[in-house]
Amino acid sequence: MSKPVILCVDDEKVILDSLKTQLQLAFGNAYLYEVAEDANDALEVINELNEESISIILIVSDWLMPGMKGDEFLIRVHQQFPAIIKVMLTGQADESAIERVKQQANLHCCLFKPWSEEELVETIKSGLSKL
């Protein structure tokens, strides 16, 4: 059986690399780590993994991305996969966007850029403890 996946979505490659590195250091080989550079790519990744019966257990998504914003993306994911733990990462989300994701997508947490590695790891651990 395949390992569960943590998916990171951000339009800045340096942020994706940083997230992936920090998660791998904290959680090692317990999970697979996938990345996507926008919400549409992320939806494709989610569908491909779902077709292969590989479960995504957690998504860390940026809010401000070209095309679909993170709040809309996480709400769409929640409608299809309500069990996925959702974390939004942002430098500039407005309060109404954060509140909308909390209400419509069961947002676990919103982290603000720049985040600390410790804050990221603790947020992921607390999210995973809900599974």
Automatic annotation (TrEMBL):
Q: Which Pfam families match?
A: Response_reg (PF00072)
> One GO biological process from the UniProt record?
phosphorelay signal transduction system
The answer to whether the entry has keyword Membrane is: no
Cite the entry's keywords alphabetically. Phosphoprotein
Where in this chain does the record put each Response regulatory domain? 5-128
- So which domain of life are we looking at? Bacteria
Which residues, renumbered to this chain, carry the PTM 4-aspartylphosphate?
Answer: 62
Cite the InterPro entries for this sequence. Answer: Bact_response_regulator, CheY-like_superfamily, Sig_transdc_resp-reg_receiver
User: Glycoprotein: is it a keyword of this entry?
Assistant: no
The record, for SMART domains, names: REC
Q: List the Gene3D superfamilies.
A: 3.40.50.2300
* UniProt protein name: Response regulator
Instruction: Provide the species name.
Output: Symplocastrum torsivum CPER-KK1
